[in-house]
Amino acid sequence: MQGTAGSSTGVVGADSGDTDGNDDPMPTPPPAASSSSSGPSPGPDTGDDTGTDESTGEGSSSDGRLPLCEDPTWWSRWWRHRTRVTIDSRGVTDALGNFPMLVRLNDERVDYSETQDTGADIRIVSEDGKLVLSHEIELWDESGSSDLWVRFPEVPAEGSPSPVFYIYFGNDTAPNTSAPAEVWSNAYTSVHHMGTMVDSTLTGHDGQPNGGVASGPGLVGLTSIFDGDNDFIAVPSESDYDYTDDMTLETLIRVDAFDTSFQAIVTKGDSAWRLHRDNNSDYAAFANTNRIIGTDSTVAETSINTGAWHTVAMSLGNNRKRVFIDGVLIQDESFNASMATSSDLVMFGENAQATQRYFEGAIDEVRLSPARRSANWLRTSHRAMRDLGMLQYEPPTSCP
User: Fold this and answer.
1) Domain-embedded: residue 376
2) What is the pLDDT of residue 293?
3) For the chain, how many structural domains are there in total?
4) What is the 3-state secondary structure (H, E, C) of 102-147?
């Protein structure tokens, strides 16, 4: 599933977006049969008189139900409606494999009156109907926006044909096939959407809130809100985060106040790696202790103390340390050493070793990986994470 913490697993989803030009080749996406996902593998509609659709196992004449759609271009005759979506890969410099992307639904993109109340009947299907994509429902809200994460086998480079997929809905009896661990199977130690403390990789890294961490509307789904007084979230199994030569951290944050030096965002103590406020500035810093010269800090000199949401990412690998703000590479420095490890817990909003550095603001998404993500990956992830036009939705249609 994920790479081994602390090992040099190399770049994932490779491309030429890095300034050093040394990205490794992109891993080949798995074949459709093995990467099918959030639902049973699609198969032929046999037209047998039992009324059973082999692609879903849904429906039979014995329960009095008739097929809902007989259009041969439809993926399954048991779904009444679909929405056509096109991927806009502008700015993607090389193809990205097994890439997670936000799919945001609202009453213009689906008809909520035709969906199940929990979104259980949602299926994300390739244009040719041969692949059902893995998806996770983070939030289902029929009064507003519903947020899903979908793993795409490939996001092509700009200039390639634009992939199309369909969102199928309108099946009253379909089971819920939301499968978080399948969405986040591409070298993640843990993924936290912050509306709940559950780690979406389902590998036992659920967060433990302390103080009075609150929950509220976020940029995606719900977010965790920290009061800067005594709030933080601790993550178990700290040794799984003992990264030494390769790592990537991606997060969505909103700073409400910078009023303490080195305020913690996501940290593993003060002797390993940490993302925090750069001393008393308005900048974010990727700091670590290495095994040669001690403390090393890479500062992104772009203010994040704006009261607005920012995507912040830091990556280590290929002898480089990098910090990205809103998908833009701000600081890129040489790093010819290995990071030290520690026995401190990973924390969101506090530093387990250098305490009283409580964060004041909101943290909406945290993704931790033992792999080096490229600049192309992180730039595209910023767009995909924030619904910034990567997906072009058409109005929903019904089976004729």
Assistant:
1) no
2) 66
3) 2
4) EEEECCCCCCHHHCCCCCCCCEEEECCCCCECCEEEEECCCCCCEE
